[in-house]
Amino acid sequence: MGLRDSYHLVGSFCDWSLSPEPMALTPAADGTVHQIFVVRDGSCSSNSSSSCLVAAEAEDCSAEASENGTEAAKEGVGPAESPTRVDAGPAESLARSFGRSPKKRKLRREEFQIVISKSWVRRVYPGDGHGSVMLRPDIPSVAASEAGKGHDCNWIIEGFPGDIFRITFDPSSMIVSSAFVENRLNGSQSARWRGVNLGCWLVLEKWMAPEFFAGLAPTAEDELALMTQGGSKARTAVKEFRDSFIRLEDFEWLASTGGINAVRLPVGFWCLEEHARGTPFLPTCEYVDLAFDWAEANGLQILLELHGAVGSQNVEHHSGCSGCGVAWLEGSKRRQNLQVLEAWAIRWGHRKAFLGLGLGNEVAKPKPSSSSWKSDFVGTLLCKRCRGIQPRGYWEEVADFYAQAGRLVRPHLRPDTPLVIDTCWDTSRFLQGRLAKVPGPLWLDYHHYECMGSGDPGTVEDHIKAVNLCNQLLLEFPPNGQQPPPSFVLGEFSLALKPQSQGYDADGWQSRFFRNQTQLAAQRAVGWFFWSYKMARAGWSHWSYRESVELG
């Protein structure tokens, strides 16, 4: 590509004529160019098998072919066969769940190529050799440009009418990418990643499936106790539960009716057979394999999360083991957790749907009363003092674990794959440069639950403002060493409030609460993940995305 070359988008959104203005240089002034376009109401729908041009003509959305458009047809630039998909977004789905009639919208499809210096023989098209490809927001696509080639090879963008996308092209690296900007019709800003957690599937949680636990081991509070007390009966029941709780149909629903483009997948250290061996846990790797297959078949991404570490990172039931101390950084357990993360990166890091890797969920500081922590961790600090080494605190040790884990997994991941660091309910915890040695890019995972705590239940109106969430996400991080500052992600949130909150029995606050939290995530984070996709109990819609959508 020459320094004096210009680049024009050509696509269905401009009736396959050259865009009037060339793509503009980005603020980085590095030769990268970009341009925005708006998804048309008259473009073909995602579940249509007809071409965009035919659909546009049928809806009187195109005029007679211009000279450029006629030339485009000669050169084989035109619509590709449509994939089958979708028809509503998260805001409309939740509106339906709270008694409002949603306005039915269908995803539309736009296609494009890039023309160099207005010469149709110099076109830029998808370079993976598989024809037209779906260009997902913020997932780069390799481009190619060879005279006489590129016929019927277009990039495809899916969006709702009024959605504004920015297309970016880097001529030096031959990379094309897209980013969602906003919806012109309603002024809403959408998060880059809109997701749900697949909770209680691969790490069982009693409060989400109380009847299941009661039928196998009534006194068990976590998965370890369930498997230990329930014996062979529990092993059979757990397998049957996992076979049926999440299936292909769920991923199809999320990508279509749910308006979701990513899932956060909580997994325990026992996922692979070599790590489950010798424990009461059942390996879950076959389900993770299926999740990636289903996600890729439906255009979804997966954020894989270490939810239960060897030795537990928080002694909570959702780590799989609530009866032990926080011992995940002790000796052999630390080594095992590093091996687990590296093994996951090797097995799934190359998958197309692999969005990122979470290095530990809701990490907690060990309590001083923990004997194992006293004997190992405190002993180490005293030993360091004897050698004249200034001892560091627990969170420095946590950061060291993240840095070592990052060095182990990075060779098996795409360069732009984020490592996700839990903020432990406090986004300022890693402000002191503690993460400088963790190879980025990094996302800082914050969880927001207005129903937690023992304080005054307050009023619904106060809660739905989500003031604490706003304050946490407003924190500005400096660059992480030589890397850009980490980004925030709202990894867990719900619609749950204390029933004693004033105004709790009124209608309509749930949709405003959802909108406020997701809009804050759109403005200050890379995305959001609702907890959870669904529950293994009825009547808990404030914790169930699926039930909230389907109530209406």
If you had to describe this structure to a student in words, what would you say it looks like?
- The chain is an alpha/beta fold and about 550 residues long.
- It is about 30% helix and about 20% strand.
- The protein contains 15 helices and 18 strands.
- The strands form 2 sheets. Strands 1, 2, 3, 4, 5, 6, 7, 8, 9 and 10 form a 10-stranded mixed β-sheet that branches. An 8-stranded parallel β-sheet has the order 17-16-15-14-13-12-11-18.
- Helix 9 runs parallel beside helix 11.
- About 10% of the residues have low confidence.
Which descriptors would you attach to this protein?
552 residues; 29% helix; ten-stranded mixed beta sheet; alpha/beta; eight-stranded parallel beta sheet
Query: Which residues form runs of ≥5 with pLDDT under 50?
Result: 48-89, 95-105, 370-375, 379-385
Mean of residue pLDDT?
84
Number of helices: 15
Percent of residues in beta strands: 15-25%
Question: In one word, what is the shape?
Answer: globular
What is the share of helical residues?
25-40%
Terminal Cα span: 54 Å
